[in-house]
Design brief:
It contains 13 helices and 15 strands. The protein is an alpha/beta fold. The protein is globular and about 65 Å long.
């Protein structure tokens, strides 16, 4: 049976409170005054477009918190070129119609470079506005390749492996596990609709025997899961922005389709608050597309810092690592450009970053950019398939298949 409406409401409430706690006050638009540490010059202003209250809030607020931590850590160590970094923040609620005004406002507040931490559809809308403003931008957790492809891609950059690599990794996993028939349970957000289109186009390795959709605020997915069960797939892939929908999906799948292998996107692996809200054992055996590898020494360093700042029970996510890397890549580019006043020079400095050792992915994984390479990932080993244990926590890499470091 599915989760009861009462339990679902508790899940939604808890997740909403978690997102608000991470974001401070949702919907805020404010300057975040830096603690300058030893930096004494005029601040370098970075604009952060952060969905803190919309459908992307469940992951954007996680990245946003670590973006703030990275900025403060840099300031504590002398800033950039002797100047502190300062964030100005606006919330687009993952609404594409709000993006132009949000970016215009960040620019008017003095931002010389931007971090776009929002839903995919919203970031897509940002591209033309970036061209108009002439401001370079990084989308720390973006995963759809079209975000950095023409047109209007001259000023936008991504770090993580895209859905093209995801498709290859899923296909490798399905082949290794003998999976030929796939069922899909998806939410109804525009972000996931775009992601599904890109992802599934590269997954001719399986037959899609059923695709079921539920509202992102659904209180019951029993009917959808029953139809999936009737289609008799070898495995089910859940695609959602995470949050309450993801919890409800796995609670329902765990009870109605026990024994059927389940896969998911990065969402569930990167939202520890959701693990605690799932029914006991509901996530056991679930495999998600992860990017955290604890054998990476840079990941180990970030884990140590996050534990110092957030408590020893804090669970690192790919969103943390990608947020951290995005800020430090900007620091590196600003230093190479000698400042932020010349946006063309700053953009060229980003394009000249080569083989940057990443905080996410396997130990050998690096990030590189160029005039024709706005996607930083150097190979597929920025990804890792991670399996949940019976305690509803990730227990480590899935033993059946892992992506290689080169195609």
């Amino acid at each position: 049976m599915g989760v009861s409406t009462t339990r679902y409401r508790r899940v939604v409430g808890c997740l909403a409170l978690t997102a608000l706690a991470l974001a401070g006050c949702g919907g805020k638009a404010a300057e975040e005054k830096p603690n300058n540490g030893t930096a004494t010059g005029a601040p370098i202003i970075i604009g952060l477009d952060e969905d803190s209250t919309g459908p992307g809030a469940s992951y954007s607020t996680i990245a946003g918190k670590t973006i703030r931590l990275a900025v403060q850590d840099i300031n504590n160590k002398g800033g950039v070129l002797g100047r502190p970094l300062q964030l100005v923040v606006e919330n687009d609620e993952s609404d594409p119609t709000k993006v132009p005004a949000v970016l215009q406002k960040l620019s008017s507040q003095g931002a010389k470079v931007l971090l776009l931490q929002s839903g995919t559809a919203a970031i897509m809308q940002a591209k033309s506005t970036l061209t108009q403003l002439g401001l370079p931008a990084i989308a720390p957790t973006g995963v759809i390749a079209t975000l950095v492809q023409p047109p209007d891609n001259e000023l936008i950059y991504m770090l993580a492996n895209t859905t093209t690599d995801w498709a290859d990794v899923y296909c490798g996993a399905f082949k290794a596990a003998g999976i030929s028939k796939l069922g899909v349970l998806t939410d109804d957000t525009t972000t996931i609709a775009g992601l599904n289109k890109a992802l599934f186009a590269g997954m001719s390795c399986v037959e899609f025997v059923a695709t079921e959709k539920g509202a992102s605020n659904a209180s019951d997915l029993s009917a959808q899961v029953a139809r999936l069960k009737n289609a008799k797939p070898d495995a089910v892939l859940v695609t959602s922005v995470g949050g309450a929908f993801e919890v409800l999906a796995h609670n329902t799948l765990g009870s109605q389709m026990a024994g059927t292998k389940r896969f998911s996107l990065a969402s569930i692996g990167n939202q520890p608050a959701s693990w605690k809200l799932a029914a006991p054992g509901a996530l056991n055996g679930l495999i998600f597309m992860g990017s955290i590898n604890t054998e990476n020494p840079r990941t180990q360093e970030l884990v140590k810092l996050l534990h110092e700042k957030n408590g020893k029970d804090y669970d690192i996510t790919a969103y943390d690592a990608q947020a951290w890397d995005a800020v430090h890549l900007l620091k590196h580019a600003i230093e190479k450009a000698g400042g932020v006043d010349d946006s063309k020079k700053l953009n060229e400095a980003i394009q000249n970053i080569k083989k940057y050792p990443s905080t996410f992915g396997q130990a050998s994984f690096t990030l590189s950019f160029g005039a024709d390479k706005h996607l930083g990932a150097d190979g597929p080993c920025g990804l890792s398939l991670v399996e949940f244990g019976s305690d509803n926590k990730p227990k480590g890499p899935w033993a059946t298949f892992q992506p290689p470091c080169s195609k």
